Amino acid sequence: MAAILTDDVLEQARHGDSGALTAIYQNLAGPVHGYLAAKGLEDPEAAAQEVFLTVFARLADVTGGVAGLRKFTFSISHARMVDATRARARAPRIVEYEPAVDPRVETSPQDELLAQLESGHLAQALDSLVSDQRECVMLRIVAGMTIDETADIMGKSAGSIKQLQRRGLLSLKKTLEEVDGDD
Question: Which InterPro entries does the UniProt entry name for this protein (predicted)?
Fold first, then answer.
C-alpha cells in the first residue's frame, strides 16, 4: 500500500528521501501509465519511467504542493505523449508482412463478432471523438485530473474544458448506444 501523498512527503522528496520518492512514484505511476497506455503509446511503461526521471530531477521546480506535483507530472506525461506521437509520425514503424493478421483478408462474420466481443467498444467510441474532446476525457476520467489542471495542460479555459468533457461524454454515450443497438 502506497504512503499517502502529502506536502510533507513532497518536501522530504525534494531533500532526496528515498521513501518519499517511492511514495510519489507509487501514488502517481498507475495513473500516468494508464494515461500513456490509453493514448496509444507503444511502450507506456518506458514513457512513464521517463516521466518520473524528469519529475524527480525537477522536484525543486514544483509549486503548489501535491496538486502542483500532480499537474506537473501530467504536464510532463502529456508532453511525452506528444513527443512520441510526433516521432511516430516522422518515422513510421516498419513491420514484416504477416498474412495471418493482414486486415485486407476478409474474415467470417463469426470471427468479426468474436473480435468485437473480445476488444470491447470503448476504444472505438473514443476514436470517434474530436481530438480535443478525447484528450479532455482522457485527462479528466483516466488520469483523474481536475478541471483546472486539465485546462492548464491543454491550454484552455476551465469553461472550455467543461464543455469539451460534456460534449465528449455525450458523444461517447451516443456512440456506445449505437454500437449496442447494432448488436
Answer: RNA_pol_sigma-70-like, RNA_pol_sigma-70_dom, RNA_pol_sigma70_r4, RNA_pol_sigma_r2, RNA_pol_sigma_r3/r4-like, WH-like_DNA-bd_sf
Q: What is the CATH number of domain 1-92?
A: 1.10.1740.10
Kindly report, as residue ranges, where domains of CATH 1.10.10.10 are found in the chain.
111-183
Are residues 141 and 161 in contact, defined by beta-carbon separation less than 8 angstroms?
A: no
Instruction: Tell me the three-class secondary structure of the chain, residue by residue.
Output: CCCCCCHHHHHHHHCCCHHHHHHHHHHHHHHHHHHHHHCCCCCHHHHHHHHHHHHHHCHHHCCCHHHHHHHHHHHHHHHHHHHHHHHHHHCCCCCCCCHHHCCCCCCCHHHHHHHHHHHCCHHHHHHCCCHHHHHHHHHHHHCCCCHHHHHHHHCCCHHHHHHHHHHHHHHHHHHHHHHHHHC
The residue with greater pLDDT, 67 or 95, is 67
Fold of 111-183: Arc Repressor Mutant, subunit A (1.10.10)
Summarised one tens digit per residue, pLDDT across range 43-86 is 999 999 999 999 999 999 899 999 999 999 999 999 999 998 88
Parts of the chain belonging to CATH 1.10.1740.10 = 1-92
How far is residue 45's CA from residue 61's CA, in Å, rounded to a whole number?
24
Q: Which of 130, 127, 154 is nearest to 140 (CA)?
A: 154
Single pTM value for the model:
0.55
